Amino acid sequence: MSSTRAARSSTRRSWPGSPGRQRSQALATEWNTDMATLLMVESWLHSTGLCLPPIIRRLGHEYILFTKDPALYPPISPGEPHPVIRDAREIVVVDTNDDDATCAAASALAGKRRIDGVLTTCDYYLATVATLARLLELPGAPPDVMRLATQKHLVRAALDGAGLPNPAFAVAADWHDARAAAARIGTPLIAKPVDLNAGTAVERICDEAGLKDAFWGVNSAERNTRGQPLRRLLLMEERLEGEEVSVEALTFKGLTTIIGITDKSLTAPPACVESGHMFPARLSPDIARQVETFAVDALDAIGFTHGLSHIEVMITADGPRIVEINPRQGGGYIFDLVHLVTGIHPLEMLVDLALGQMPALDSRVNAASLDRVAAGDGGQRMAGSVEGATTGLPGSAAVFFVMSPRDGVVSHVSGVERLDADPRVHRWALPTPATARRPRDNDAYLGHVLTVDPAGDGARVRAEELVAALRLHFADGETTPPLIAP
Question: 249 with 348, same domain?
């Protein structure tokens, strides 16, 4: 299933003052004015990291990669370079964990060629991208907003400051403070590091032993997977109960458009790993409106004015509550689900926004669906939502992840012939042999099955059924079905 993207305008917004823009007239005869040159600062290896490079090329643009080490992006198969490396016009090796070095390299690059936008798919470089965009006077979110948005405890404080309903929370760098905070909040509670992603080290805590494990696990981790120093702070939150969804949105010039709402399933406690998603979530119009409004209020609370966002919301008995705000596109192949159902590709939106363009949403945008201005000057305005994407659009797409209930080496997977034979399977991936471990974060995924239901909301059920019918064969001779969410 696919759709044709609307014709793109060849006119890009001028952002005067950037070193690249100051030479645009002089270089006009040397550049194709329909081609933009993007600066990509690192990338994820999988999912968005595999998909964005060919999308940039398909849109007629090019990018220059800033990376601290090209070896971070190994070949995806023998003789097949990683797309991030393969599709780059140029690779600049620079310590991307050092803002001063990265800014110096960007300034030097902009002194030689026109740079039209800066982007990344990797959470750990969102603030760096904002800093470079500010330096080069290119489109982007304010750097201080991106620094706040990527620190979970600062987001909680901002929600409190805006007067939004918020679970009780506390942050601790000391074990005694953690114990005291947990006693105030009560158990069960959710504990997590303030500055990691992909569900890493998110735990449901029921007793002091679990709290101690969570605290010392976070306190002892000095760097993330990209070598950046961690704050080693434990965030403890009152546990929210209800249905968890995520709001996919784009914000341009302070106007937020809701792309849609995605449902999700989680593994059983103590780890809370996302096991699958379906787009769109099937919600009543009233609940969908409440969730959309609350998500925009939350973006307003952190000062978010530019970019894609993936806002995780718990629909509780007392109304919507924020789980986390992610100032980037949804991961876990949510961008594929959105594209299959709406014809709108979030990664194309990412490119548009980096170039200072409002993404083309065609007639799918229903500006009258919800149009309101938050109280106060500079309030966030909700421009609308993608028509039908939350409640009325026929069809659904879902992804379910293959995870193992035990550690070990999976030699092969049986039952995949059913995946090839089922017309509702859009795509599946199960590379073997593979090292499996019980899920503690999204790195436990062995593969995925992505399904579509052109006429209804059955995509999730079918994806779960197909994954449940698979069998994991371990090198030690044991055979087991994949882990299925409760």
Answer: yes
Phi, psi dihedrals of residue 177, rounded to the nearest 5°: -65, -35
For residue 453 the two structure tokens come to 């239901």
- The stretch 418-445 carries a mean pLDDT of 93
Q: Are 399 and 448 in contact (CB under 8 A)?
A: yes
Residues 249 and 380 in one domain: yes
Q: Does residue 431 lie within any of the structural domains?
A: yes
> Among the three residues 325, 352, 386, which one is the final residue of a domain in this structure?
386
> Given this model, what pLDDT does residue 383 score?
56
Say whether both 475 and 449 belong to one domain.
Answer: yes
Q: How many Å apart are CA 342 and CA 364, to the nearest integer?
A: 8
| pTM for the structure as a whole | 0.86
Cα gap 138→12, rounded to integer Å: 12
Least confident of 127-136, 224-233, 267-276, 469-478: 267-276
CB 315 within 8 A of CB 291: yes
Residue 3 in any domain: the answer is no
Report the Cα–Cα distance between both ends of the chain, in Å, rounded. Answer: 30
User: Is 103 a residue whose pLDDT tops 70?
Assistant: yes
pLDDT, mean over the chain: 87
361 shares its domain with 464: no
How far apart CA 309 and CA 297 sit, in angstroms, is 13
Q: In 10 A of CB 255, how many CB atoms?
A: 15
Dihedral, CA of residue 330, residue 332, residue 334 and residue 337, to nearest 10: 170
pLDDT value for 7? 30
Taking residues 114-138, what's their average pLDDT?
98
Of 346, 364, 342, nearest in space to 354 by CA: 346
- Choose the final residue of a domain: 343, 358, 386: 386
